[in-house]
Specification:
three-stranded antiparallel beta sheet, alpha+beta, 3 domains, 11 strands
Length: 421
């Protein structure tokens, strides 16, 4: 199979679709009745949203970066049987260095950025097929795996890749769940993510809630699309003012005798002279030389025209609202919901960043945890290490102070409430 990531890399393995399970949703069968085996194309123009929102709007761009970078900065750690695993655990190594080109935060930033701009995030696991022991796993790592290295331990170590959401199409199976995914680049497609006999897929698809789509998520940038258009239009209007001497300059009044009017040739010549000599930001403030009965009447912005500034700020606040970023963190004037910057930043982490990270940690636990579990070693779980996030240090200090003052609690109870094993 063609490998779109590495032109010289190893060939992609084709995994046969899984047999239909005995347990299946009755509603899922109705969803898949006319879609089984065919890609479900995204109903919106992802490229246009990304260009107009992320590419041209500074507020949307900053919101996406703040959410993606903040969520990616939270370390993910592996717990085995309730105890924190060391840095040499194969799953911890995979999370810290998912592939030769990216570190863990880089991969997660791309993943969370895709969630904000497309509503869908895709991770592909390479080298985790049954029996692959490059990570130190035993053969058959799911459900009662052994810790004995597989005879195929010479295989490359497993890797994780974030897939571009606009290139991935979901192909539902007969039971309504995705049977595989199609990845398309320049008209060439590869089928990936086919489930094995145990129902495991090498593709993790995390999506935001969508009220009227069965297979794709709804991105914040689409909810903010109207506000993005208003904000961009306000910027274009302001740019037009700059191109015309930074203000609606005024009017030239022709004071001819007895109602005399300018000829068409005179009118055209005057307009051409104004455009060439006086228009543009470089000519702002240049004095005008008038003759032949012309007089200059200065004009200013009306209150209605001045309101576009407040309208632009209102659009910026709506964009920030869609992404869950307090406008105060973006420097948008006129919004002081929080008493200070620290409170706004804490609300941003609690209400926006932490739920996303926790959701990814739970998804990784269900997706990769069983494949890295060893017999008798306890369940493998991925958690976020919030103690390592500097932005939450104030809340952590407050919790410690409250626990320290709770004299009726034992030391073990305090440690348990604080989350320390």
């Amino acid at each position: 199979m063609w490998d779109w990531r590495r032109p010289l890399g190893r060939a992609r393995r084709e995994v046969a679709p899984a047999a239909e399970e005995a347990k299946a949703s009755a509603a899922g069968r109705l969803v898949a009745l006319t879609q089984a085996g065919r890609p479900v194309w995204t109903p919106r123009d992802y490229g246009q949203l990304a260009r107009e929102g992320f590419g041209k709007n500074p507020v949307a761009y900053r919101c996406v970066r703040m959410v993606a970078e903040g969520a990616a900065s939270a370390p993910l750690v592996v717990f085995v049987g309730g105890e924190r695993a060391g840095a040499d655990h194969p799953l911890q190594r995979l999370l810290d260095r998912p592939n030769p080109e990216q570190g863990g935060p880089d991969l997660r930033e791309a993943f969370f950025g895709a969630l904000q701009t497309a509503g869908n995030g895709y991770l592909e696991a390479v080298g985790l097929e049954a029996g692959v022991g490059g990570s130190g796993l035993g053969s058959g790592a799911r459900g009662g795996a052994t810790s004995t290295p597989s005879p195929r331990a010479q295989d490359p170590a497993p890797e994780l890749y974030a897939l571009r959401p606009d290139r991935v199409k979901v192909a539902p199976g007969a039971n309504g769940w995705p049977a595989f995914y199609e990845y398309t680049v320049d008209g060439r497609s590869a089928r990936i993510g086919a489930r094995d006999a145990d129902g495991w897929s090498p593709v993790l698809h995390l999506k935001l809630f969508h009220p009227y789509d069965d297979h794709y998520g709804f991105p914040p940038i689409e909810a903010a699309a109207f506000a993005v258009d208003v904000h961009n239009a306000s910027g274009a209007w302001n740019k037009a003012l700059l191109d015309n001497a930074a203000r609606p300059s005024g009017a030239l009044v022709y004071g001819g005798r007895d109602g005399e009017r300018m000829t068409e040739a005179q009118h055209a010549a005057l307009k051409a002279a104004l455009s060439e000599v006086y228009a543009g930001a470089a000519n702002a403030g240049r004095p005008m030389v008038l003759e032949g009965g012309l007089s200059w009447t200065a004009m200013s912005l009306t209150p209605g025209e001045m309101d576009f500034i407040e309208g632009k700020h209102a659009a910026a606040r709506e964009i920030a609202l869609a992404f869950g970023v307090p406008p105060q963190l973006l420097g948008i004037p006129g919004d002081n919901t929080y008493a200070n910057y620290r409170e706004a930043n804490g609300a941003f982490w609690r209400g926006t960043v932490m739920p996303l990270v926790e959701r990814l940690a739970r998804a990784l636990t269900g997706w990769l945890g069983p494949r890295f579990a060893a017999e008798g070693g306890g369940a493998v779980e991925v958690r976020a290490d919030w103690d390592a996030v500097p932005a939450l240090s104030a809340e952590r200090d407050a919790l410690w102070a409250r626990l320290e003052a709770a004299s009726w609690l034992s030391a073990e109870e305090k440690r348990r409430m604080e989350g320390v094993g």
